[in-house]
UniProtKB/TrEMBL annotation:
Alphabetized InterPro entries for the sequence: LexA-like, LexA/Signal_pep-like_sf, Peptidase_S24_S26A/B/C
Source organism superkingdom: Bacteria
UniProt name for this protein: Peptidase S24/S26A/S26B/S26C domain-containing protein
Organism: Paraburkholderia aspalathi
Record domain Peptidase S24/S26A/S26B/S26C: where: 102-225
Classification via Gene3D superfamilies: Umud Fragment, subunit A
Length: 232
């Protein structure tokens, strides 16, 4: 499980105490049941949703994060480039450790939740730095194919060869560009949209067959694209 998450067992215990199901939480948070399923599978919810989750569960953030505090403070000093500390006349600064993320295959992306903890990067594998923190399990994909190439003059567009910087454990919300595993192990890249209350995966290329695909219960969101660009 990723360290910087709200432990799922904490959320599940509160749901049980309230006599509620995960689907109820999805409704309260105005997100899809797939998002909640992903949290359960991955062992936790993003810290950025702490306030919303606490409000839905009728808890304070302190109560929700009670178990997380002890996990956070066990982080070893080797994981920080500049370990935050405070003095009498200054406050803790940010951790400015450089972050490099591996370029992986689309098959590996589809299985990332299962292999990330034990993933061994090949010696000749490429790694890229990103100005956005993608988390401990962030990864990079290279666009293959033209399904996400928008018409000329339309922005954004993701032509073949463009690098996608992906943050796992990020909420897959309508309007986001997501990496999704469906019908097997290989991941796909699409825009998540909502039409009349239903979630769809949209290809930006208007000529792409099956441009709009309804999100299925067994689809797994592997991450959200936080940045995209070319390797010059």
């Amino acid at each position: 499980m990723e360290r910087n998450v709200i432990p799922w067992d904490r959320i599940a215990a509160r749901l049980t105490a309230l006599g509620k199901r995960p689907a109820w939480l999805a409704t309260e948070l105005r997100t899809g049941t797939n998002t909640i399923t992903n949290w359960k599978t991955r062992g936790g919810a993003p810290l950025g949703r702490a306030r919303d989750i606490a409000a839905a569960l009728d808890w304070s953030i302190d109560e929700l994060m009670a178990d997380h505090a002890s996990i956070h403070h066990t982080k070893s000093s080797r994981e920080a480039y500049n370990e935050p500390h405070a003095g009498d006349n200054f406050t803790a600064g940010p951790d400015i450790k450089p972050r490099f993320y591996p370029e992986i295959s689309w098959v590996q992306a589809g299985m990332w939740t299962e292999i990330a903890d034990n993933f061994v990067l090949a010696e000749d594998a490429r790694k890229y730095q990103c100005h956005i923190d993608l988390g401990d399990y962030g990864f990079v994909l290279r666009v293959d194919g033209v399904s996400m190439t928008a018409p000329s003059g339309v922005f954004p567009t993701f032509p073949p060869g463009m690098l996608l910087f992906v943050r796992p454990y990020e909420d897959a919300l309508p309007g986001k560009f997501v990496i999704v595993r469906r019908n097997g192990n290989t991941a796909t890249f699409k825009k998540l949209i909502q039409i009349e209350g239903e979630l769809f995966l949209e290809a930006l290329n208007p000529d792409w067959p099956h441009r709009f695909m309804r999100v299925q219960n067994d689809d797994v969101f592997c991450g959200v694209v936080m940045h995209a660009g070319f390797d010059l």
